[in-house]
Write a structure and sequence with these properties.
Elements (H helix, E strand, L loop, with lengths): L9 H13 L4 H8 L3 H9 L6 H10 L4 H6 L7
Protein name: XRE family transcriptional regulator
GO molecular function, one term: DNA binding
Organism: Pseudomonas marincola
């Protein structure tokens, strides 16, 4: 099984960090929710490591992170 990843463009990591901060979560808290070690979360946010889709799926299932915004730069419409 292959893992699809986002391009390692810095913008995805910056948005991920912005979302974490918007939700008031520490690095270790979001890393835990995504099933990753803290240092991996730091690498994602710095744009130094591509963000795997399975990580984003975990965040979608366990948090209020707006994954659509991380990917597209557009906030999802309020329901």
């Amino acid at each position: 099984m292959s893992v699809t990843i986002l391009d390692d463009d810095d913008v995805f990591g910056a948005r991920l960090r912005t979302e974490r901060e918007r939700l008031g979560l520490a690095v270790h808290e979001l890393a835990h929710q995504g099933g990753r070690p803290d240092f991996t979360q730091v690498l994602y946010e710095a744009g130094e490591q591509p963000i795997p889709v399975d990580y984003l799926q975990a965040l979608t299932a366990r948090t209020d992170v707006d994954v659509w915004w991380i990917i597209t730069g557009e906030r999802k419409a309020a329901l």
